[in-house]
Specification:
Layout: E1 3-11, E2 16-25, E3 28-37, H1 39-53, E4 62-66, H2 69-84, H3 98-108, E5 113-117, H4 125-142
Parallel strand pairs: 1-4, 4-5
Antiparallel strand pairs: 1-2, 2-3
Helix pairs in contact: 1-3
Length: about 170
């Protein structure tokens, strides 16, 4: 059976306090973020954390609902060329968010994952739930509070991947 989840990111300013979240249902979701990051970083991190959380169920197909064309195109269209060019875009400039993208590439290996674009802020229940939790995480960081991380996926104890966009090196996340 296919597991379906929505993933979303949010940044209050770009960059600014940022959050990410994924939602399977009201009892299975996770959120987090950073004091300073971009919306795209939040979007990517939501998918990365979802892949880690579902790793124990890697034999099960995963359908990811995402309102970010950037995320979908990055992992389904652009990544093979970026890798061939040493993580450089067609114009020769470095790929942004490389650390997250490299981790996504590794987490997708051997998985049956299908990305499906959903229009953001259009009433899709899972997308709206992910958006609400990602924005709440960003708002918590803005207020200097730790966000509600959520219960996670039932039966999974996967830790959140270590990715820090405000770490001094490497400068590939901005």
């Amino acid at each position: 059976m296919t597991l379906t989840a929505a993933a979303d990111g949010s940044a209050l300013g770009n960059p600014g306090p940022a959050g990410w979240a994924w939602v399977v249902d009201e009892q299975q979701w996770r959120a987090g973020g950073w004091p300073r990051a971009t919306n795209n970083q939040g979007e990517l991190m939501a998918v990365l954390d979802l892949l880690h959380a579902t790793a124990a169920r890697a034999d099960e197909p995963l359908r990811i609902l995402c309102d970010s064309q950037y995320v979908i195109n990055s992992v389904t269209r652009w990544m093979p060329g970026w890798k061939r060019r040493g993580w450089r875009k067609a114009d020769g400039r470095p790929v942004l968010n490389r650390e997250l993208l490299e981790q996504l590439d590794a987490a997708l290996t051997g998985r049956d994952v299908r990305f499906e674009w959903v229009k953001g802020h259009a009433g899709h229940p899972l997308n709206e739930a992910a958006d609400l939790r990602a924005r709440a995480a960003a708002t918590a960081f803005q207020a200097g509070r730790r966000p509600d991380g959520g219960p996670g996926l039932a039966g999974s104890s996967a830790p959140t991947p270590e990715v820090s966009p405000h770490r001094p090196a490497p400068p590939t996340l901005f």
